[in-house]
Write a structure and sequence with these properties.
Order of helices and strands of chain B: HHEHHEH
Structural class of chain A: mainly alpha
Oligomer: heterodimer
Number of strands of chain A: 2
Largest interface: A-B, 57 and 37 residues
CATH architecture of one domain in chain B: 3-Layer(aba) Sandwich
Radius of gyration of chain B: 14 Å
Largest sheet of chain A: 2 strands, antiparallel
Strand order of the largest sheet of chain A: 1-2
Helix content of chain B: 40-55%
Shape of chain A: rod-shaped
Number of helices of chain A: 4
Number of helices of chain B: 5
Chain lengths: 222, 100
Protein backbone atom coordinates (compact mmCIF):
# COMPACT_ATOMS: atom_id res chain seq x y z
CA UNK A 1 0.00 0.00 0.00
CA UNK A 2 1.36 3.33 -0.98
CA UNK A 3 2.20 5.16 2.15
CA UNK A 4 1.04 8.72 2.37
CA UNK A 5 3.51 10.87 4.22
CA UNK A 6 2.15 11.67 7.65
CA UNK A 7 3.55 13.41 10.66
CA UNK A 8 3.66 10.89 13.46
CA UNK A 9 1.94 13.04 16.02
CA UNK A 10 -0.93 12.44 18.34
CA UNK A 11 -2.94 15.10 16.59
CA UNK A 12 -2.58 13.28 13.33
CA UNK A 13 -3.46 9.99 14.96
CA UNK A 14 -6.68 11.34 16.41
CA UNK A 15 -7.54 12.81 13.06
CA UNK A 16 -6.93 9.54 11.27
CA UNK A 17 -8.96 7.60 13.78
CA UNK A 18 -11.86 9.93 13.27
CA UNK A 19 -11.49 9.57 9.55
CA UNK A 20 -11.50 5.81 9.82
CA UNK A 21 -14.65 5.83 11.93
CA UNK A 22 -16.37 8.03 9.37
CA UNK A 23 -15.20 5.88 6.52
CA UNK A 24 -16.46 2.73 8.21
CA UNK A 25 -19.80 4.30 8.88
CA UNK A 26 -20.07 5.61 5.36
CA UNK A 27 -19.11 2.25 4.01
CA UNK A 28 -21.81 0.51 5.98
CA UNK A 29 -24.45 3.02 4.97
CA UNK A 30 -23.50 2.90 1.32
CA UNK A 31 -23.50 -0.85 1.36
CA UNK A 32 -26.99 -0.85 2.79
CA UNK A 33 -28.01 1.65 0.18
CA UNK A 34 -26.58 -0.47 -2.57
CA UNK A 35 -28.33 -3.59 -1.34
CA UNK A 36 -31.66 -1.87 -1.07
CA UNK A 37 -31.26 -0.22 -4.46
CA UNK A 38 -30.44 -3.57 -5.93
CA UNK A 39 -33.55 -5.14 -4.45
CA UNK A 40 -35.78 -2.37 -5.72
CA UNK A 41 -34.06 -2.47 -9.06
CA UNK A 42 -34.64 -6.18 -9.50
CA UNK A 43 -38.32 -5.81 -8.76
CA UNK A 44 -38.56 -2.94 -11.18
CA UNK A 45 -36.60 -4.62 -13.89
CA UNK A 46 -38.78 -7.71 -13.79
CA UNK A 47 -41.82 -5.53 -14.14
CA UNK A 48 -40.09 -3.67 -16.91
CA UNK A 49 -39.49 -6.85 -18.81
CA UNK A 50 -43.07 -8.00 -18.50
CA UNK A 51 -44.39 -4.63 -19.58
CA UNK A 52 -42.03 -4.46 -22.48
CA UNK A 53 -43.00 -7.85 -23.73
CA UNK A 54 -46.65 -6.96 -23.42
CA UNK A 55 -46.23 -3.61 -25.13
CA UNK A 56 -44.18 -5.05 -27.94
CA UNK A 57 -46.74 -7.71 -28.57
CA UNK A 58 -49.45 -5.07 -28.43
CA UNK A 59 -47.73 -2.81 -30.88
CA UNK A 60 -47.13 -5.66 -33.20
CA UNK A 61 -50.83 -6.43 -33.16
CA UNK A 62 -51.60 -2.77 -33.76
CA UNK A 63 -49.28 -2.58 -36.66
CA UNK A 64 -50.79 -5.57 -38.32
CA UNK A 65 -54.24 -4.06 -37.76
CA UNK A 66 -53.10 -0.85 -39.30
CA UNK A 67 -51.69 -2.65 -42.26
CA UNK A 68 -55.07 -4.21 -42.81
CA UNK A 69 -56.74 -0.86 -42.45
CA UNK A 70 -54.36 0.70 -44.89
CA UNK A 71 -55.00 -2.04 -47.35
CA UNK A 72 -58.70 -1.47 -47.37
CA UNK A 73 -58.69 2.30 -47.40
CA UNK A 74 -57.00 4.92 -49.47
CA UNK A 75 -54.16 6.82 -47.93
CA UNK A 76 -56.07 10.08 -48.11
CA UNK A 77 -59.09 8.65 -46.41
CA UNK A 78 -56.91 7.27 -43.70
CA UNK A 79 -55.13 10.54 -43.20
CA UNK A 80 -58.38 12.40 -42.98
CA UNK A 81 -59.79 9.90 -40.56
CA UNK A 82 -56.88 10.33 -38.22
CA UNK A 83 -56.32 13.99 -38.82
CA UNK A 84 -58.15 15.39 -35.85
CA UNK A 85 -57.65 13.19 -32.86
CA UNK A 86 -60.52 13.15 -30.46
CA UNK A 87 -58.53 11.73 -27.72
CA UNK A 88 -55.76 13.68 -26.15
CA UNK A 89 -53.39 12.61 -23.49
CA UNK A 90 -52.12 14.92 -20.84
CA UNK A 91 -49.18 13.65 -19.08
CA UNK A 92 -48.25 14.89 -15.71
CA UNK A 93 -44.68 14.26 -14.90
CA UNK A 94 -43.81 14.05 -11.28
CA UNK A 95 -40.83 12.59 -9.58
CA UNK A 96 -40.74 9.91 -7.00
CA UNK A 97 -37.83 9.22 -4.76
CA UNK A 98 -36.54 5.69 -4.53
CA UNK A 99 -33.50 5.57 -2.28
CA UNK A 100 -32.49 9.09 -3.25
CA UNK A 101 -32.87 8.37 -6.95
CA UNK A 102 -35.32 10.69 -8.55
CA UNK A 103 -37.42 8.64 -10.89
CA UNK A 104 -40.20 10.02 -13.00
CA UNK A 105 -43.76 9.25 -12.19
CA UNK A 106 -46.35 9.91 -14.78
CA UNK A 107 -50.00 10.27 -14.33
CA UNK A 108 -52.02 10.79 -17.40
CA UNK A 109 -55.47 12.06 -18.10
CA UNK A 110 -57.29 11.60 -21.29
CA UNK A 111 -59.73 14.03 -22.70
CA UNK A 112 -62.63 11.69 -23.00
CA UNK A 113 -63.32 9.51 -20.07
CA UNK A 114 -65.28 6.93 -21.95
CA UNK A 115 -62.97 4.20 -23.17
CA UNK A 116 -65.16 3.53 -26.18
CA UNK A 117 -65.21 7.12 -27.27
CA UNK A 118 -61.88 7.01 -28.97
CA UNK A 119 -62.62 7.03 -32.66
CA UNK A 120 -61.83 10.38 -34.17
CA UNK A 121 -63.93 9.81 -37.28
CA UNK A 122 -67.34 8.86 -38.41
CA UNK A 123 -67.84 5.27 -39.33
CA UNK A 124 -69.21 5.93 -42.80
CA UNK A 125 -66.01 6.20 -44.78
CA UNK A 126 -63.64 4.05 -42.87
CA UNK A 127 -63.13 0.36 -42.72
CA UNK A 128 -63.78 -1.73 -39.67
CA UNK A 129 -60.14 -2.69 -39.59
CA UNK A 130 -59.25 0.84 -38.68
CA UNK A 131 -61.60 0.66 -35.72
CA UNK A 132 -59.90 -2.36 -34.35
CA UNK A 133 -56.49 -0.88 -35.02
CA UNK A 134 -57.33 2.26 -33.11
CA UNK A 135 -58.90 0.23 -30.38
CA UNK A 136 -55.87 -1.97 -29.98
CA UNK A 137 -53.59 1.00 -29.81
CA UNK A 138 -55.78 2.67 -27.22
CA UNK A 139 -55.72 -0.50 -25.19
CA UNK A 140 -51.99 -0.62 -24.88
CA UNK A 141 -51.58 3.06 -24.21
CA UNK A 142 -51.70 2.76 -20.41
CA UNK A 143 -49.15 0.00 -20.58
CA UNK A 144 -46.95 2.09 -22.79
CA UNK A 145 -46.98 4.95 -20.35
CA UNK A 146 -46.29 2.65 -17.47
CA UNK A 147 -43.46 1.18 -19.48
CA UNK A 148 -41.98 4.60 -20.04
CA UNK A 149 -42.03 5.27 -16.34
CA UNK A 150 -40.65 1.89 -15.45
CA UNK A 151 -37.93 1.79 -18.01
CA UNK A 152 -36.69 5.25 -17.25
CA UNK A 153 -36.62 4.39 -13.57
CA UNK A 154 -34.60 1.31 -14.37
CA UNK A 155 -32.06 3.28 -16.34
CA UNK A 156 -31.66 5.87 -13.65
CA UNK A 157 -31.39 3.32 -10.92
CA UNK A 158 -28.84 1.34 -12.86
CA UNK A 159 -26.70 4.46 -13.05
CA UNK A 160 -27.14 5.09 -9.35
CA UNK A 161 -26.30 1.53 -8.41
CA UNK A 162 -23.17 1.68 -10.47
CA UNK A 163 -22.13 4.86 -8.73
CA UNK A 164 -22.90 3.51 -5.29
CA UNK A 165 -21.05 0.31 -5.98
CA UNK A 166 -17.99 2.24 -7.03
CA UNK A 167 -18.11 4.27 -3.87
CA UNK A 168 -18.50 1.20 -1.70
CA UNK A 169 -15.55 -0.43 -3.38
CA UNK A 170 -13.43 2.66 -3.14
CA UNK A 171 -14.10 2.91 0.57
CA UNK A 172 -13.64 -0.77 1.17
CA UNK A 173 -10.49 -1.32 -0.79
CA UNK A 174 -8.75 2.02 -0.75
CA UNK A 175 -9.86 4.45 1.90
CA UNK A 176 -10.22 2.11 4.84
CA UNK A 177 -7.01 0.11 4.35
CA UNK A 178 -5.05 3.28 3.73
CA UNK A 179 -6.30 4.90 6.88
CA UNK A 180 -5.64 1.77 8.88
CA UNK A 181 -2.15 1.67 7.51
CA UNK A 182 -1.63 5.28 8.52
CA UNK A 183 -2.87 4.61 12.02
CA UNK A 184 -0.59 1.63 12.39
CA UNK A 185 2.37 3.64 11.18
CA UNK A 186 1.75 6.47 13.59
CA UNK A 187 1.14 4.20 16.57
CA UNK A 188 4.34 2.36 15.92
CA UNK A 189 6.29 5.55 15.49
CA UNK A 190 4.87 6.95 18.71
CA UNK A 191 5.62 3.76 20.59
CA UNK A 192 9.11 3.79 19.24
CA UNK A 193 9.61 7.39 20.36
CA UNK A 194 8.33 6.54 23.78
CA UNK A 195 10.68 3.60 24.15
CA UNK A 196 13.65 5.62 23.04
CA UNK A 197 12.90 8.43 25.41
CA UNK A 198 12.49 5.90 28.23
CA UNK A 199 15.84 4.38 27.42
CA UNK A 200 17.36 7.81 27.35
CA UNK A 201 15.92 8.63 30.73
CA UNK A 202 17.27 5.41 32.24
CA UNK A 203 20.64 6.14 30.78
CA UNK A 204 20.64 9.68 32.15
CA UNK A 205 19.57 8.38 35.54
CA UNK A 206 22.45 5.93 35.57
CA UNK A 207 24.89 8.63 34.65
CA UNK A 208 23.60 10.95 37.35
CA UNK A 209 23.77 8.28 39.99
CA UNK A 210 27.24 7.43 38.87
CA UNK A 211 28.43 10.98 39.18
CA UNK A 212 26.84 11.31 42.62
CA UNK A 213 27.98 8.06 44.21
CA UNK A 214 30.96 6.97 42.15
CA UNK A 215 29.91 3.32 42.20
CA UNK A 216 32.55 2.37 39.70
CA UNK A 217 35.40 3.71 41.76
CA UNK A 218 34.08 2.06 44.89
CA UNK A 219 33.66 -1.22 43.12
CA UNK A 220 37.13 -0.83 41.73
CA UNK A 221 38.59 -0.26 45.21
CA UNK A 222 37.08 -3.32 46.83
CA UNK B 1 -40.94 9.34 -33.52
CA UNK B 2 -40.24 7.13 -36.41
CA UNK B 3 -41.02 6.44 -39.97
CA UNK B 4 -44.47 7.43 -41.05
CA UNK B 5 -46.05 4.02 -41.32
CA UNK B 6 -44.98 2.95 -37.87
CA UNK B 7 -46.31 5.86 -35.97
CA UNK B 8 -49.27 7.56 -37.55
CA UNK B 9 -51.64 5.28 -35.69
CA UNK B 10 -50.59 6.79 -32.41
CA UNK B 11 -52.13 10.06 -33.42
CA UNK B 12 -55.48 8.43 -32.91
CA UNK B 13 -54.94 8.07 -29.21
CA UNK B 14 -53.64 11.53 -28.64
CA UNK B 15 -49.93 11.10 -28.95
CA UNK B 16 -48.18 13.45 -31.27
CA UNK B 17 -46.48 11.65 -34.12
CA UNK B 18 -43.23 13.14 -35.33
CA UNK B 19 -42.20 11.79 -38.66
CA UNK B 20 -38.51 11.50 -39.24
CA UNK B 21 -37.01 9.20 -41.76
CA UNK B 22 -33.31 9.94 -41.80
CA UNK B 23 -30.97 10.30 -38.84
CA UNK B 24 -30.10 13.97 -39.35
CA UNK B 25 -33.63 15.29 -39.25
CA UNK B 26 -34.41 12.83 -36.51
CA UNK B 27 -31.62 14.18 -34.34
CA UNK B 28 -32.86 17.71 -34.87
CA UNK B 29 -36.40 16.70 -34.12
CA UNK B 30 -35.35 14.90 -30.98
CA UNK B 31 -33.53 17.98 -29.73
CA UNK B 32 -36.55 20.05 -30.48
CA UNK B 33 -38.84 17.69 -28.61
CA UNK B 34 -36.60 17.67 -25.57
CA UNK B 35 -36.46 21.44 -25.63
CA UNK B 36 -40.22 21.52 -25.66
CA UNK B 37 -40.33 19.56 -22.42
CA UNK B 38 -41.87 16.39 -23.61
CA UNK B 39 -41.83 13.87 -20.82
CA UNK B 40 -41.99 10.70 -22.84
CA UNK B 41 -40.67 10.18 -26.31
CA UNK B 42 -41.39 6.90 -28.01
CA UNK B 43 -39.02 6.15 -30.78
CA UNK B 44 -38.99 3.26 -33.19
CA UNK B 45 -36.20 0.78 -32.80
CA UNK B 46 -35.07 1.22 -36.37
CA UNK B 47 -34.61 4.93 -35.92
CA UNK B 48 -33.10 4.64 -32.47
CA UNK B 49 -30.49 2.43 -33.94
CA UNK B 50 -29.10 5.38 -35.84
CA UNK B 51 -29.50 7.83 -33.00
CA UNK B 52 -27.74 6.03 -30.23
CA UNK B 53 -25.46 8.91 -29.37
CA UNK B 54 -28.31 11.38 -29.08
CA UNK B 55 -30.32 9.04 -26.94
CA UNK B 56 -27.46 8.19 -24.64
CA UNK B 57 -27.16 11.85 -23.82
CA UNK B 58 -30.55 11.83 -22.12
CA UNK B 59 -30.12 8.50 -20.40
CA UNK B 60 -29.06 9.90 -17.05
CA UNK B 61 -31.64 12.62 -16.87
CA UNK B 62 -34.96 12.09 -15.12
CA UNK B 63 -36.81 13.57 -18.07
CA UNK B 64 -37.45 12.92 -20.87
CA UNK B 65 -37.87 9.20 -20.93
CA UNK B 66 -36.96 7.89 -24.34
CA UNK B 67 -38.59 4.56 -24.93
CA UNK B 68 -38.00 2.28 -27.84
CA UNK B 69 -40.95 0.67 -29.54
CA UNK B 70 -41.00 -1.74 -32.42
CA UNK B 71 -41.95 -0.28 -35.77
CA UNK B 72 -43.78 -1.82 -38.70
CA UNK B 73 -40.64 -3.41 -39.95
CA UNK B 74 -40.77 -5.75 -37.02
CA UNK B 75 -39.30 -6.20 -33.63
CA UNK B 76 -35.53 -6.09 -33.57
CA UNK B 77 -35.33 -6.91 -29.90
CA UNK B 78 -33.46 -3.71 -29.28
CA UNK B 79 -35.87 -2.58 -26.61
CA UNK B 80 -35.25 -5.66 -24.55
CA UNK B 81 -31.56 -5.35 -25.13
CA UNK B 82 -31.57 -1.90 -23.63
CA UNK B 83 -33.29 -3.23 -20.53
CA UNK B 84 -30.72 -5.94 -20.42
CA UNK B 85 -27.94 -3.45 -20.68
CA UNK B 86 -29.16 -1.50 -17.71
CA UNK B 87 -29.26 -4.72 -15.71
CA UNK B 88 -25.70 -5.44 -16.65
CA UNK B 89 -24.69 -1.96 -15.76
CA UNK B 90 -26.22 -2.21 -12.32
CA UNK B 91 -25.29 -5.70 -11.34
CA UNK B 92 -22.29 -6.46 -13.43
CA UNK B 93 -23.75 -9.45 -15.12
CA UNK B 94 -27.04 -10.38 -16.60
CA UNK B 95 -29.00 -12.41 -14.11
CA UNK B 96 -32.52 -11.68 -15.25
CA UNK B 97 -32.49 -12.49 -18.89
CA UNK B 98 -30.04 -15.30 -18.81
CA UNK B 99 -32.56 -17.63 -17.24
CA UNK B 100 -35.37 -16.86 -19.67
Amino acid sequence: MAQVQQNPTRMELTKLKKKLATARRGHKLLKDKRDELMRQFLILVRENRELRERVEAGIKACNSNFVLARASMSREALNIALMAPKQEVWLEGDTRNIMSVEVPKFSFRTRTQDANDIYPYGYAFTSADLDSAVKSIADILPDMLRLAECEKACQLMAAEIEKTRRRVNALEHVMIPQTEEGIRYITMKLDENERSSQVRLMKVKDMMLESAHHYKEKNGLE
Amino acid sequence: MGDRDSIYGFAAVGLEPVVAEDPETAADRLKELVARDYAVIYITEALADKLEKEIARYADRPLPAIILIPGVSGNTGKGLTSVKRSVERAIGSDIIFGEG
